[in-house]
Design a protein that fits this description.
Two copies of one chain form a homodimer.
Chain A (H helix, E strand, L loop, with lengths): L9 H16 L6 H8 L3 H8 L2 H23 L4 H10 L5 H12 L3 H23 L9 H17 L1 H8 L6 H17 L6 H12 L21 H9 L3
Helix pairs in contact in A: 1-2, 1-4, 1-6, 2-3, 4-6, 6-7, 7-8
The structure holds a DNA duplex (30 and 30 nucleotides).
Chain lengths: ~240, ~240
Amino acid sequence: MRSSIEDLTTQARIRDAAILRFGRDGFAATSVRAIAAEAGVSAGLVIHHFTSKDALRAACDSYVVSEFLGRKDELRGGDTAAAIARWLADVDANRPLIDYLARMLTAENSAADDLFDSLVAGTKSMLDENVASGVMREPIDPEITALYLTLYGVVPLVMQRQLARRLGVDGLSAESLRRSTLPILDLYTHGLYTDDRFLVAAEMAIGRTPGPRSDKGENDPNQDPDPPIAGDISDSYSTHH
Amino acid sequence: MRSSIEDLTTQARIRDAAILRFGRDGFAATSVRAIAAEAGVSAGLVIHHFTSKDALRAACDSYVVSEFLGRKDELRGGDTAAAIARWLADVDANRPLIDYLARMLTAENSAADDLFDSLVAGTKSMLDENVASGVMREPIDPEITALYLTLYGVVPLVMQRQLARRLGVDGLSAESLRRSTLPILDLYTHGLYTDDRFLVAAEMAIGRTPGPRSDKGENDPNQDPDPPIAGDISDSYSTHH
DNA sequence: GCGCGGATTGAACAAGCGTTTAGGATCATG
DNA sequence: CATGATCCTAAACGCTTGTTCAATCCGCGC
């Protein structure tokens, strides 16, 4: 997405315009004519270059994924910190890409499925290596842990709006990243509970009753895995203490 | 959403049909006629009862939120575990509500904003109470911690599709909840890192340089707050060990 | 300078959209 | 039995949609 540089192929300009509007307004809410206007061309030309609106979406999907995975390799190896700083500085320039990506991840979209799989795989190998080198503890279930670490990693992207609203800034920014780093790293270092009484209780409860039923209330307090009741459980459980 | 019981107001049947289709296909991709067909009425009647498609959406929003917060109170106090079990048993019956809610949370929607705020507030007071009673450690920044705990709580809802795909089941289920409980509770109990070397390094780095820039790579490894590079950073950092 | 092929446009198309309107059922109340 | 109100439908409205098509433009090899 180097739309600022004006000497792009018309086809590329249309694609960038589509990414911008699809990402901002969603696929169904964006008309071919709106994309054409954004790119400064006629609606017919959009179809001429991409055959159909659906094909245009597919082209955007694979472009965004490849662009994103390309940067991933860029970050790998070499001066990582500098690469991160570069990415953060570019966060505004990359906004359309980021918005599009966020929409992809929650949509029914096989390109998003592939991307998510590769993110989980990356997290999994990171986890394995760090466990091997003694930096991280051995998780109970590495598969599930990698999955949830990935979910936790992408949720600020997907829930960008709520995050920005609560932090009082507009969108993902270096500032919100800075404020978030220590609390999250603290959670990942020390956990949240003072002791393992809940974990032990849950281990026994789940060992005994594999189903969702549980005869004692204390078996899984604040069990955030199930979101609709996450806050609620937490609340109600807190009344037990 | 007790659509199974057929003797509902026509207006309620239309509302339920709208929730079903909006939640499954999205607002823009759902036509008034499709909702009418789903409810077994004419398109005109939909407008007659709800004035416009936008107003129908607003009606669905507030109905879903109130229905959800109603259950929240239902869960609070009393036999919590039994209430949870009841909720999980009803997960299929509640699917339309859940899907609608998931869509709301990522959309530009003031009703969703209010709901999210109340979820954060609930998590915050849970956190405060548990810290006061010594069950949880004092977080570095309770505000941010509550925010991220809420995000982590709702992400399986919002990313339902990816979660289900990876777990090999269809949608949120009691089974996926069961498999997730222990690993997550383990993370919340013991953390992920074996020692606090990264946390300490990050504290110093951020204390020194409040901006996004960082002169050393070790200041925020695996810093999941920023999602687009979450997996990537983790990966590249793992090469340092 | 000619011709040809791709880029590009604007008009046109049928289909679908949200909404309006006129009128037919249905039913409690006078 | 008439009356009005409410529920409801079918048709039509004007508009937007994705896509097609004929016509024009433009640069490049001959």
